[in-house]
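Follow-up to my post from last week.
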Amino acid sequence: MATNHYFNLYGSKPEQRIIEDLIVESIKIMGTDVYYLPNDNDQARDLLYGEDPVKKFKAAFAIEIYPSNVTEYSGEKEFFSKFGLEIRNQVSVIMSKRSFSHRVPQDTFTRPREGDLIYIPFLNGTGELYEIKFTNQTKDFFMLGRKVPYFYELELEKFKYSQEFIQTGDTEVDSIVADVGYTLNFMVELGGLSGILDYSFGEIVFQSPDLTLANATATAIVQSWSQPNNILSVTNIFGDFVTDNLIIGQDSNAQYNLVYYDTLNPNNKEQYDNEYIANSASIIIDTSENNPLGSL
Amino acid sequence: MATYNRVIRKLVVAFGDLFKDITLVRYNPDETESERFVIPITYATKELYVQRLQGDPDLDKRVQMTLPRLSYEMSGFTYDATRKQNTNIRNVGVSNSNGAIAQYNPVPYNFDFKLYLYVRNIEDASQVLEHVLSYFTPDYTIKLNMIPEMGIVREVPILLNGTEQDIVYEGNRDSDTRMIIWTLNFTAKAYIYGSISSVGLIKTSITNILNDISPSDSVILNMTLMNGVGNYKLGETVYQGYNLSTATASGEVESWTNGRLTLTNVSGNFISSRPIIGSSTNANYTFESYQFTPVDLAKVIVVPNPTTANVNDSYTYTTIISESANGANVVIPSTTSYIIDLNTENKYIDLL
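User reply:
Got it. Predicted complex:
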């Protein structure tokens, strides 16, 4: 061996553990708690195009991180394009490997994976959802000769939400879908025997000819329920909901009759032009013919 | 008053209306449905502050943006000479007040539109493209109520010219996530319309039917005596031109009295500025006016019933025909120069 064997700068495990302890403690003192949301449906990945059209995020693991950006976001930030406002914020965060392994089941998620999400509750005052675009495991450059990283530096990009399922059980995280997802307001009225019950947040509601979820013709996830106004807000819609049919809550067993809903007017904060165009066109276009482009 | 029929705005709205309710269905690997949603669409070139107010009104947007989404814009228009129509033709419509309105033929223009599709997944784009493209062969026609005041409803073909994809997926680890944008180029074959003006209505038609002059009829010419010499002889042939054989007009003298030359068997057109020469007497004079004796055979007056009928109303005609055997002696005054035209001079149609 060419190196001096009286000095062991690259192989002392106690010293490596001290360094790791210091890193973890520093993050715990100076960092903040975030949620790690792994994609639970990566078995549905499209291997040809290399993408996940039906991502599902069903768990949120609390974990501490230290934000590397201390003064400002990186990235292009607010970007105005032909598609409207994009908030192209990017941040880098430090996440210790030890904390990750303690908080996240290691049998399925051995490291923070690209494509998984990080929810940072304090950013922007209301919390922001980020996608891991790169997990850098060499930031510590193998300090003291440790072969596994002390920490990961995660390169994060604010999430481009594409109607994915986010049902982690955490109300704050799950409410993102109601804000930005395709959310429809169902106007309902008392109908079934269990009509007086309340739908519950996050439960599945469905329509079914035999009133069972197994044979449901349409399902959705409840985002809110306003009993005085009889308005049920739902996201992640499967199938066509039919008016004058019962909507049944899977957990609550609430049953109300669907009266009306408008597919062109989702209940989102962001405003789109679908309904405005439809209303404006109604007096311009000869309505004796249907628009075949709008139906599948 | 400015001409503004809001045709361009109508086209922009109508084009967007085609894509306002495109539904995307996500499928599980076993090809069962996972979820469905209507793709949002916006007009592309909004003011930046409007984009912010619409995109993040409470400054609490927790994601970068929501995909997939559509946007579109009208990128320009060009004159289409192949669809040019006669500029002088006017279309007539009903005025709100009593009367008619008219508008000249519109000007053909090709309006170029771009439809943008921004998706996270190639599979999403494939589905939308397959759905949309199947309807454009390569055109799809919509029927638009272009000028309601004129009752003009036009079928507007929209042609799909082509598609382009822009997929940004290469770069280092600091690069953004993959970006997939499709651009579909369309052309709408429409028209620009001019101003609308009020026009009067023809509500009475009067037709006078007179007899026709034949060669055997007599025509009296009032000659200018101070500009000529000699006396015409009864039965003599008179003519205009260098000689009788090449005469442009000729006739036979029926009488010659007090400067009034009466001719019969007239052929050709006598012109007031040229002398009429006697073939044997060589007398020659110009004429200052002429007389003939047409007979007013009939008068036809046509009016609508009711007389207050407007454009597009249902109405019948009232036709009054009056016949007369009395002739009227018509004297055609001399102005500068005129022609006795046996084919047209004696026919009148008055339109009031």
